[in-house]
Amino acid sequence: MVARRRKRAARASEEAIPSPPGYSAVPVKFSEKQQACHHLYVREHRVREGTKSAWPPKRTLFVLNVPPYCTEEGLSRLLSPCGHIQSLELQEKPVLAEGPEEPKSTFFHPKPVPGFRVAYVVFQKAGGVMAALALKGPLLVSTESHPVKTGVHKWISDYADSVLDPEALRVEVDTFMEAYDKKVAEEETKAKEEEGVPDEEGWVKVTRRGRRPVLPRTEAASLRVLEREKRKRARKELLNFYAWQHRETKMEHLAQLRKKFEEDKQRIELMRAQRKFRPY
Fold it and tell me: d(Cα 275, Cα 36) in Å, to the nearest integer?
């Protein structure tokens, strides 16, 4: 009797959950043992009129409220009965870009913060979106044939994934640097070709590229510069460190001013005495 009441209450709670306007609710459970359902909200992905988007229309499903334990592989398995999935991408929030981002590196990009995410699912045919909107569920994320790791097993798996493969890292770095060098060479070639050539309106592009390239500083030169800066800093720190040094500096400055004043007076007197023109 208690089990029946719980099932009825769970079924009633599922039916009472309203869906956002324009979305269809698909109930999802982590496993068969879980009684409460989590809901995915799905709809056909649309953009405003006049907005470009690389997500194919009529074939893209937009999914909200994807739980943290649901990976791309797990979500693809849940939606695979609806039709062949061409691509699937999980993101932290909806994107307004014209299309999916470039594939991120597994070594140099931080892992996404765990939390609820959104998904863009591209089916090979438009019928896959209609079939996904008609799903009733509940769908199981973790099954006997496809279990989802939790607890200690998940921590061990995450730690194993965090250990990088040196050879794979070297290959990715070399590939990136080759593409970067090629891009820089193409930009330099294009800049040389456009240098001094007027455009359609007659304007000539002026670049700040120097004629003589700067030679790279050697280690010995760097050490000499650091030593010179160190000595200069030491002189500044020791200058006027004590109060009596500050007083003596002021007195020497005043004495130099008085001496210069007397020299100027004598020079003026000499100039007056050498004047030979006397009108009277």
Answer: 114
Torsion of the alpha carbons at 236, 240, 241 and 245, rounded to the nearest 10 = 150
**How far is Cα 37 from Cα 133, in angstroms, rounded to an integer?**
18
Task: Say how far apart CA 23 and CA 44 lie, in whole Å.
Answer: 9
Three-state SS at 195: coil
CA distance 44 to 55: 11
* Angle, vertex CA 277, rays to CA 273 and CA 280, nearest 5: 105
**How far is the C-alpha of 213 from the C-alpha of 249, rounded, in Å?**
46
| pLDDT at residue 257 in the model | 92
Question: Which pLDDT value is given to residue 2?
Answer: 46
Q: Give the residue ranges of the chain where pLDDT is below 70.
A: 1-19, 50, 96-106, 109-113, 196, 202, 204, 206-218, 236-242, 276-280
Report the b/e string of 231-255 with b at 16+ CB within 10 A: eeeeeeeeeeeeeeeeeeeeeeeee
Name residue 10's amino acid.
A
